[in-house]
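Forwarding the complex inputs:
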Amino acid sequence: MSTAVLLVALGLEIAGLVAGTGNFAASAQQKPETAEVKIDNFSFGPETLTVPVGSTVTWTNRDDVPHTVVSTEGVFKSKVLYADERFSFTFSKAGSYPYFCSIHPKMTGKVVAQ
Amino acid sequence: MSVNPFDIRTVILAKHAQHVVLIHFPIALFIAAVAFDYLGHWTRSRTLAAAAHFNLLLAAASTVPVVATGLAAWQWALEGQKLKGILLMHLVLGCISSALIWLVFLIHLRVRRHPEVPLPKYRLPFEALAVLIVGFTGHLGGFLSGVNGPG
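Prediction (whole assembly, two chains):
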């Protein structure tokens, strides 16, 4: 009887540990969020943005001059963004996403989804 | 980080080198031509008149690649999407400027082919107006490209 109780207790302990580990793993994974990149003074700010996978990034053009947001690898591409216009993209896969402005190609930035 | 060097469209349009560089030729040649024409008119110098003519010839010829690369940038970099605001104004004024340069050149060419016909005096205010429009278009282009700013 006592052995049976001990085994049950051990089983419960293991179950608890596994569940606890699962909870820990779940809490370690960051929740998707929304982030903003400002286009100002012919630059993207922040130039490199790190977000959890599933996050939506919104670019807002604060310049008087039109800009675009174009993925170097062709993952996303905005239309021309005039003053105060926005473009959003959701990063559903982990990875590094470099991008640039096709009107001013020396304007570059990067989103890291992890 | 840099743009993909193996993408032919990116290579051609890299940093807008073609349009942004080429545009300086018709602007400089046209303004020089008008200056020579004014000086030639006041001094009655045939040498200056000839200089004006050849500068106009080169200015008109150089508008062709400038317009072509500008339209190519619109079609490729912006995928031909409908323009508005400063981009549309730059496109329209760019076309008007090119047409004005050709018109001034053709006025001079006509006289060049018929030396007995004097250059019409109306060309002088017309040339001045064209210089103003070309200058304004160039200013818009500089603003767009970031030359007039920190970009």
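The radius of gyration of chain A is 23 Å.
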